[in-house]
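Re: [ENG-882] Designed sequences occasionally contain unexpected residues at chain ends

Forwarding the minimal case from QA. Structure tokens:
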């Protein structure tokens, strides 16, 4: 499948050229990168435009007027990629916390599944070795909290390293998604689950960002705790569809 990698950016000037180079060095036929920049004050958007001029057939850039949030950035990117005919769409961070080399394994997972998810919480996966115990605990609890409440059959519900089939994204009601922080990842997984799509999880090592400042905040964590409960009620009109394909396979 031809792959489009959607990368939202806000102040990623130090990372963007390197992450795009890393994607383009992979043996992926016809791969493209779509950058969605939220008017980064550090000039990320300008750098993205320069890269696009060098690779006009492989790089696209969407400039948004301001910092509008991760969720809406991905929705914007997904719709653009689908409109351009992408057969598979990847989502990943610009800061190398998601290893580009794993895109091949994730893409291969779509041979038998509707979405392939990078997972920190299956055998072979892990979080940054330098994280303090409290941060490891918070990450693990947040993930357990979300997948337990929503009864998701995956081990990593909060991760943002995923590859989607075109048909899967078209089958999810993207316009109904309200999460605009990191709970966007949970909401996408929940909607895919309720819509009957099958998952596979691919283990990966989540490294903390190389350069720049983390965008996680207490407000985002609080939104996540409340938002998960709201999903139960907002999507109760979508009956969970059972399919014959396996619900989860660890690769």
């Amino acid at each position: 499948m031809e792959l489009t990698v959607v990368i939202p950016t806000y102040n990623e000037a130090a990372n963007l050229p390197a992450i795009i180079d890393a994607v383009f060095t992979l043996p992926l036929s016809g791969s493209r990168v779509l950058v969605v920049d939220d008017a980064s004050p550090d000039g990320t958007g300008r750098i993205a435009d320069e890269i696009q001029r060098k690779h006009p057939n492989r790089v696209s850039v969407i400039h948004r007027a301001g910092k509008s949030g991760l969720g809406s950035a991905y929705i914007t990117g997904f719709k653009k990629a689908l409109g351009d005919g992408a057969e598979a769409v990847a989502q990943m961070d610009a800061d190398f916390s998601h290893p580009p080399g794993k895109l091949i394994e994730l893409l291969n997972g779509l041979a038998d599944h509707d979405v392939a998810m990078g997972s920190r919480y299956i055998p072979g996966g892990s979080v940054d070795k330098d994280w303090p115990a409290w941060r490891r605990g918070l990450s693990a609890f947040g993930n357990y909290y979300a997948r337990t409440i929503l009864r998701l059959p995956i081990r990593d519900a909060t991760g943002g390293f995923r590859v989607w089939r075109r048909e899967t994204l078209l089958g999810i009601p993207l316009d109904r998604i309200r999460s605009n922080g990191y709970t966007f990842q949970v909401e996408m997984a929940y909607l895919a689950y309720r819509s009957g799509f099958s998952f596979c999880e691919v283990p990966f090592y989540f490294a903390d960002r190389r350069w720049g400042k983390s965008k996680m905040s207490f407000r985002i964590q609080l939104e996540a705790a409340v938002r998960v409960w709201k999903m139960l009620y907002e999507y109760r009109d979508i009956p969970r569809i059972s399919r014959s394909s396996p619900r989860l396979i660890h690769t």
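QA comment: On inspection the terminal residues look reasonable. Strands lie at 3-9, 32-37, 59-63, 88-91, 115-119, 126-127, 162-165, 199-203, 205-206, 248-250. Proposing we downgrade this to a documentation issue.
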